[in-house]
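Appendix B. Raw example, untouched.
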Amino acid sequence: MLRRQKGFTLIELLIVIAIIGILAAIAIPMYRAQTVKAKLTEVTNSMSNVATAVGAYYQDEGAWPPAQGDEAAIKTTLGVAVPVGIKYIGAAQTLANGVIQFTVQGTGETTVDGSTITMTPSTTAQGAVNWVYSGSLPAAYMPKK
């Protein structure tokens, strides 16, 4: 090459393109997973509000609240509004023994939409209420605690 000609060789450009392709192949799936987890925080935050109300009911009454068929009944019995149908919560209900179950919708991830998240309470000898997550939500998206 002459001294006047400057620039990148074809090999250098191909290496840069290959590196960008590898980084994109790694970053895009991780980005999608994180966006789904961020969307699920709306569901878990609403579940936490209901869980707090269920725990307060248990502390006051000494028993779990009766099973509720839908979010309107949850609001009437526990005084907690659940934004069902808005964004990512498809359905909400409390089941027997204080169990809370929400259905997920609209996240854009087929393995997540339509799945359920369940919070099951247990009590300690001192009367504290502990919650455990379970359900049909894939393990990668299930909240830790």
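End of appendix B.
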